[in-house]
Please model this.
Amino acid sequence: MKRDYRHDLEKTARQMILVHRVDTLIRLILRTIMRNIRVKHAGIFLYDKYKDEYVIRVSKGKRGIKIPEGFAKIKKNNPLIRYFTDKELSSFDQDFLLYNRINYYLKYSRSRGRNDLVGFLEDLKDQLSLFQAKACIPGFFRNDLMGILFLGAKEGGGVFRPEELGFLSVLASDVVMAIRNAWLFEDLNKQLDKNKKLFLNTVIAFATAIEAKDKYTSGHTERVVKYSLIIANILGKTYPQVSSEFVENLRIAALLHDIGKIGIPEEILNKKSILNDDERKFIFKHPLIGANILNPIGEFKDIIVGVKYHHERYDGKGYPSHLKGEEIPLIAAIIAVADSYDAMTSDRPYKKALSKEDALKEIKRNSGKQFNPRVVEAFIKAFKGNKI
Amino acid sequence: MDKRILLVDDEVEVVNFLAHFLRRFKIPTIKATSGEDALCIYNKESISFVFLDIQMGGIDGLTVLQRIKAKNPDAKIIMITGKADTEHQDKAKELGAIDYIVKPLDLTDLKEKIDKHILQG
Model:
């Protein structure tokens, strides 16, 4: 009774394109095996490149032995691995390992007085019987053994036929593809994380530069970031606009909101008495200077508005552009509240800090005047929830 | 052989596989799939050796270890730990476990430990 496996192989291949998770893929492959060749159980040893060993990932089967996923591992010098990788064993058929062939190999090795091989084959037999494996099929990428499929006895006995072994070989190479794809995705994600970290640390370095100059505002940036994110977290529950991308932009904008102070003379920044008109004009420039510094970074479009407009007021009396109400981008309106609250609750050269409660009253009083009422509402919620 | 080994893990497949592995060395086993089960069996049967999973629902492995040790200070117990969980491993040794094995199990190591502790001991 011959069977045409092509149909099932093509079907599996089609499904595989859609799956990126290596475990899901392997389950799919094992299911295909169980459906086409009725074996008592089947499993797979998968190469773990970080640990340089082979771990049993999945084993399936109702009737045969069931090995818990990820429970056991074998090292590279295990005879099961060596059978396929050791060049000195090339007199054996390294494309497949069949349990019932080992006795034949043993006889052959004994007749030639190869005691080294006899010992090896005895160990190999022992390993196979531990997993009750009757057939093993390797999956290679170039010269690297990436995984081994292993199969238990067929239901009702019987040997594995050449066309079945051919079918299994194709599936083993699919396993290889699965692992290589999984690694590729992992590497891409790692690279992405690394870039993100590099970017954020660069921004933090800039933010630190501002604080080095303005000695009275130590820790201010960090707190404005913290308050801004808390407010955004609450707003996000009501407004879909506050997406995870929005929050990431907010984090960067809050870190950099005062970067324009780099362009303001230190004696003005650190002056202990009230500023005169000329000095105040200088201070008013810092949001614009900040926006100009960041302007060459095209990817910062949504971040720059947070920096540029964080001193606008809801009633239109702010600076630099006298924007009003909802004209002020939400990202800037959030930083405005966070920035003001921290300014009020910190000692400054020209004034003492307010208590938290008094600062909250001040924020409430200015809702709809200086601040966006939606943001104030979220701020009050955060405050009452002891988050600020 | 009067050496009976108690295998304890809340994953039934783990105890089954361990039993299968030990059977190859003609070592008789009893299985338990919870801490409660394990204590119950330990009190009834004559057990020479225990493989004991640390992380289980209900009574966890460290508690089982303590209770068995309180009853029989000479009890020989090897812990099975989920990962390279050094905190629990240290704790287990402190409480008197003679050794531990880490998942995924290196089967060669496991064989060596069986040789060392059970077959020769």
User: Anything to note?
Assistant: Chain B is about 45% helix and 20% strand. The longest strand of chain B covers residues 49-53.
